[in-house]
């Protein structure tokens, strides 16, 4: 049965209704963006991303981070350390986040997480949050906890030793990544694990480094 054509006046009313809805949504979005930009300026936010991470996405974000650090006037040495830690935190999400796209949508490992870079006077903070399997918590804690009590010289020596040692395939370079961040940080790495009430098999892993 053929559909009856919509009368011109009715088409106009439908168009006006959709237009008003679109304008309302755009206004709300602009208000949210304005609030976010104001908050970003107050918190000296340099970079922020929440969503998917993959090798190609990280490569694209790397260019943005480089530009943002340069625009922010960060000096060369600090910029190098920040960029290095950004890469390590991103790789942590790519390799270890427990949330991923469905199998038929994954292309080279697309994971979910969040990261931000902020400045606090002369200090710069990088924070990374991503879900991990709860049964991986102890392994990560064992890698991170010793770093908090090690001196700078001990961290540098451990870094050199790791470079010489063969990295087990299953480690995905996590130990080296944490050592790299600890070596460049101006304070011990901070981390926390927050079990999810709605999913006991998943824990939120938070990691912060100060440079």
TrEMBL record:
A Pfam short name: DUF6272
InterPro entries hit by this protein: DUF6272
Domain of life assignment: Bacteria
Descriptive protein name: Uncharacterized protein
């Amino acid at each position: 049965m053929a559909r009856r054509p919509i009368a011109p006046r009715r088409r106009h009313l439908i168009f006006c209704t959709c237009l008003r809805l679109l304008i309302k949504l755009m206004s709300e979005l602009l208000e949210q963006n304005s609030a976010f930009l104001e908050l970003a300026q107050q918190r000296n936010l340099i970079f922020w991303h929440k969503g998917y991470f993959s090798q190609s996405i990280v490569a694209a974000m790397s260019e943005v981070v480089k530009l943002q650090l340069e625009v922010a006037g960060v000096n060369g040495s600090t910029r190098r350390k920040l960029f290095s830690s950004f890469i390590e935190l991103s790789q942590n999400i790519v390799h270890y986040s427990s949330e991923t796209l469905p199998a038929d949508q994954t292309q080279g490992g697309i994971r979910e997480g969040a990261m931000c870079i902020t400045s606090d006077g002369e200090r710069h903070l990088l924070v990374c949050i991503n879900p991990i399997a709860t049964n991986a918590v102890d392994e990560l804690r064992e890698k991170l906890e010793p770093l908090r009590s090690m001196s700078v010289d001990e961290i540098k020596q451990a870094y050199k030793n790791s470079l010489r040692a063969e990295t087990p395939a299953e480690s995905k370079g996590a130990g080296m990544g944490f050592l790299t961040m600890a070596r460049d940080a101006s304070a011990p790495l901070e981390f926390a694990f927050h079990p999810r009430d709605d999913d006991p098999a998943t824990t939120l892993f938070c990691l912060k480094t100060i440079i």
